[in-house]
Amino acid sequence: MQLIQIDKARYRKHLNRVIIGCGLALAIGSLAISQLLIALFPDESGSHFHWNLIGVVITSLIIGWALNKYRTHDYMTEVVYVWDLKQALNKITRKMAKLKAAGREGNPQALLAIHYSYAGSRLLWQLDDNTITMDELAIKQAELDNVAAQFNVALNVDDYDEAILKQF
């Protein structure tokens, strides 16, 4: 997955609308479905927990289906890109201990994966205005650059491929 610069304002606007839309759809859909089920199958004890739960589950499945169906729509471009980037960074994070160990030994693919993780994190943090940890990331990036220079490894995020993680 290539790192690309995206329009922060458009991303935030679309993400907020998707979140609000999903929240409203969940509230309205689960209420409508559960009320329909309660009307069709009333419970003499007065407990309708299971119908409410079924309403929430069905509505959640419908929302998940709709998000998946429309993930290629132009409106969702930035939102889906960030979701996919977070998944890619999560895969690296799960292997970070092994990557750092191999990176200290000069493994160029491990260094590249760590570099991609740092660059992707920087992009995400800027999009989400999470600049508190940027100084810490800059220190880690400088350390990585020193190790890469020590082993004469050129790091370019465009060279990263998720397949490298399989060896770690």
UniProtKB/TrEMBL annotation:
The chain crosses the membrane at residues 18-42, 48-67. Keywords: Membrane, Transmembrane, Transmembrane helix. This is DUF3087 domain-containing protein.
